[in-house]
Write a structure and sequence with these properties.
Blueprint (H helix, E strand, L loop, with lengths): L1 E3 L12 H7 L1 H18 L37 H37 L1 H15 L3 H12 L3 H28 L2 H8 L4 H37 L11 H8 L8 H28 L1 H4 L11 E2 L15 E12 L2 E13 L4 E5 L6 H7 L9 E10 L2 E2 L5 H7 L4 E4 L3 H4 L6 H12 L4 H14 L5 H4 L9 H13 L5 E5 L7 H18 L2 E6 L2 H7 L2 E6 L2 E7 H6 L4 H8 L14 H8 L2
Parallel strand pairs: 2-6, 5-10, 5-11, 8-9, 9-10
Antiparallel strand pairs: 1-12, 3-4, 3-6, 6-7, 11-12
Helix pairs in contact: 2-3, 2-10, 3-4, 3-6, 3-8, 4-6, 5-6, 6-8, 7-8, 8-9, 8-10, 9-10, 15-16, 15-18, 16-18, 18-19
């Protein structure tokens, strides 16, 4: 039984930074509001408005929508709209300049301190620590009090108290970059320190500077307004948002509009800048964009357009139908696994084979909803275990199946085993996760399992830590953990890739024996046709997230239909012949064509 499927052209495309920013609705709204405020503030000199400082005592405190004064007038009869727009312009200029100054000096301090280390680092950082030792708004007030009130002095004060933010952030990043290989290479090529700092280190630090700027500028506008509110910033008759608020305070009850209007403007300005800043940060930091820093959901997000039948009569142990999984990238989903279907009976072994990146691991993880989400999304299909669609189960029920009915064995046991616990303790933990047994009993069971997987002197090895075992022994521990709860299905994702050839043969033999003795269904993922030929009854060949061919191992080996399968088979070394490698260049060229 051999079937062949053709591959449609890949539909994934990368989206530009601008598209990603616009996909974030909050950031787009922030940009829209901020853009509008910015344009109006810039156009202030051209707008047909009365002079913002022209007093008109008879028309004091007019309410909004009065004739000639759209937003009314303040306590000296000055037009509030005109003062608002000019005031916004001044607040923006001061806030943005303060940010630029703080970014310039803070980043410079951070770069030099992080790159030079030693005494320079200590001196600069103690200066920064000194600034940080005071509550910074208090420090700003003290500075303005010393320099004398005025907008320019407020600007200097705000810039100065914000330098530590930039210096600390940038220094941290610089320290981690200065020891990287490309900096060493630049040093070896004879570049001077200044050149290295500005051509090698700075470009790598720049996104962090931009992110810090975009997230602090709103804050600095607020601080400027705060100083002006206290009478330390803009001096009469000049209006900025803070001083408007401060002067209108006295009439808060008789003419609330005079303080509410600048208050709303400060709110809109700072809010829109912060939303936009957060959006920019997410776009510039790819880890944030993919959601990797969020806590992943306990089950992959499932967003199926159609709901398949919840149960399947007369089904073998595992049936996968039309499974599709992708990764959310902004608003769009980039598919990684498309329309994958296969079946696995009791005691049977199905091999999934394909080159690195073909979607094997994502397929395996999707079965139990283990793909990290965000960004993972299961966008279609069903996974029937014992005839029941597990993707339709409630979260808790699906989680209860993990390890109990379906167990995983991963590639590198050194990364999956906990380095600080003895191996038997970790197996016992797996036992206790699904059984109500005491510690002693679980430990006893762990020893039995260690013997089952062929670890000699199990009692002695029980207290060993993962790093004290060989690679093959570690993988045996991994298999013992998978066996802990007598699962029906074991999914082994490249279980022998990290091992040398002789150990690989033994581990495969172990899996093979366990399968026979316990009637386990084995889903074996590998990139090596040699492994498949040795262990699997049937094989599914994956390429670009799709199964291009599946059938009996023997018939596929004898008569591969798909060109890709032929090339994979050609990679298996044969005694007496030279090595053949997968022709990687050709598929790359094929994919590059539009
Ligand atoms: P393999 O066949 O080597 O096991 P995987 O299943 O790990 O390949 O990956 C399949 C595809 O999914 C790859 O193209 C990879 O780029 C993509 N992918 C895997 N994990 C993520 C992730 N967290 N975010 C985005 N794409 C991913
Ligand atoms: Mg993989």
């Amino acid at each position: 039984m051999t079937q062949s499927v053709t591959t449609p052209p890949s539909s994934s495309k990368r989206r530009s930074k601008w598209q990603l920013l616009m996909a974030n609705r909050l950031a787009a709204a922030g940009l829209f509001v901020f853009g509008f405020i910015l344009v109006v503030a810039i156009l202030a000199p051209l707008l047909p408005m009365p002079d913002p400082n022209m007093t008109d005592q008879p028309n004091r405190l007019l309410p909004p929508l009065s004739q000639g004064h759209l937003l009314g007038t303040d306590h000296l009869g000055r037009d509030i709209l005109s003062r608002l727009i000019w005031g916004t312009q001044i607040s923006l200029i001061v806030g943005v300049s303060a940010t630029a100054l703080a970014a310039l000096f803070g980043s410079l301090i951070g770069l030099v301190a992080g790159y030079a280390r030693g005494v320079t680092d200590s001196v600069l950082m103690r200066f920064v620590d000194m600034l940080m030792a005071f509550p910074y708004i208090l420090l700003a007030i003290a500075i303005v009090a010393a320099l004398g009130p005025g907008l320019l002095n407020a600007l200097y004060a705000i810039a100065l108290v914000n330098i530590p933010f930039f210096a600390r952030n940038i220094r941290g990043v610089t320290v981690s970059i200065r020891n990287r290989e490309f900096v060493d290479a630049a040093r070896l090529s004879g570049k001077g320190h200044v050149a290295i700092l500005f051509t090698e280190v700075l470009p790598n630090v720049l996104p962090v500077i931009v992110i810090t700027m975009s997230t602090t500028v709103g804050w600095m506008i607020l601080e400027t307004a705060g100083l002006s509110f206290l009478g330390l910033g803009a001096q009469p008759p000049t209006a900025d948002l803070g001083s408007m608020l401060g002067q209108a305070r006295a009439q808060l009850f008789t003419a609330p509009h005079a303080s509410i209007i600048p208050g709303l403007m400060i709110f809109a300005l700072v809010m829109s800048i912060n939303l936009l800043g957060d959006g920019i940060r997410d776009v510039l930091d790819p880890r944030l964009r993919s959601g990797a820093l969020d806590r992943p959901l306990s089950v992959t997000r499932i967003a199926r357009k159609t709901t398949p039948a919840a149960t399947l009569a007369d089904a073998p142990v595992l049936v996968v139908e039309h499974l599709s999984t992708g990764f959310a990238n902004g608003g769009a989903v980039t598919p990684a696994v498309r329309d994958v279907s296969f079946r696995l009976g009791k005691g049977e072994c199905l091999g999934i084979i394909g080159e690195s990146g073909s979607g094997k691991s994502v397929t395996a993880l999707s079965l139990m909803g283990l793909v990290a989400s965000p960004p993972g999304v299961i966008s279609g299909g069903a996974v029937y275990i014992g005839g029941q669609d597990v993707l339709a189960l409630r979260q808790q029920e699906l989680i209860a199946l993990r390890g109990a009915r379906v167990a995983y064995v991963f590639q590198d046991p050194l990364t999956t085993l906990h380095p600080l616990f003895p191996v038997a303790t970790q197996i016992a933990e797996a036992v206790m996760a699904h059984n109500h047994v005491g510690k002693r009993e679980a430990h006893q069971r762990a020893l039995e399992l260690m013997e089952t997987v062929g670890i000699r002197d199990a009692a002695e090895r029980a207290s060993a830590y993962p790093h004290e075992l060989s690679g093959g022994q570690r993988q045996r521990i991994g298999i013992a953990m998978a066996l802990a709860n007598d699962p029906d299905i074991i999914i082994a994702d490249e279980p022998t890739t990290a091992l040398d050839v002789t150990v690989q043969a033994r581990i495969l033999e172990l899996l093979q024996n366990l399968r026979r003795e316990r009637g386990l269904a084995l889903l074996l993922i590998t990139h090596d046709f040699g492994v498949v030929a040795q262990v699997c009854d049937r094989v599914a060949v994956m390429k670009n997230g799709q199964i291009v061919e599946q059938g009996d191992t023997a018939s596929i080996l004898r008569d591969p239909q798909h060109d890709y399968t032929k090339r994979l088979i050609a990679c298996v070394p044969e005694l007496g012949e030279g090595h053949a490698f997968l022709d990687r260049v050709r598929p790359l060229f094929e994919e590059a064509k539009p």
